[in-house]
TrEMBL record:
UniProt xrefs under PANTHER family: RIBONUCLEASE P PROTEIN SUBUNIT P14
Keyword tags: tRNA processing
InterPro entries linked: Pop8-like_dom, Rnp2-like_sf
Every Ribonucleases P/MRP subunit Pop8-like domain range: 13-88
Domain of life of the source: Eukaryota
Biological process annotations from GO: tRNA 5'-leader removal
Name used for this protein in its record: Ribonuclease P subunit p14
Amino acid sequence: MSSRVTAKQKSEYYYLKCVLEQEENGTIKYIVLERVKLKSLIVNALKQLHGLVGAAITVDVLKCEKTSGEIILRVKSSDLIKLRSSLTILNNYNGTPCRCNVKQVSPYLMSLAADSRAWSPVEVRGKQSRYYEQS
């Protein structure tokens, strides 16, 4: 009889997919920043909430998408709560009100590639979809 053993390992890092947004005239616009400016904004938010200890947290900016404004951050799992709380209180960039909308958090980078909330099982191939209703 064979048995299956699964070792649960705690992930060393967590990954966050987020966007910086600002509202102008009732419409939401994405703020696109360079990596250095974004890192500075995040460090300032950490310092504002958690002081010098928060400013010492290592946050890696893995991706800054220029078209969609999407940002992917990496942080150690022990610092995730501090980063998340700092991003929550982030409300100002260069004198304009803004907010950081965290869309996904995961211990696996690959899981950020697909959003389960936006996924649709219908894939159109030619004229017939892969999943279809029979009448």
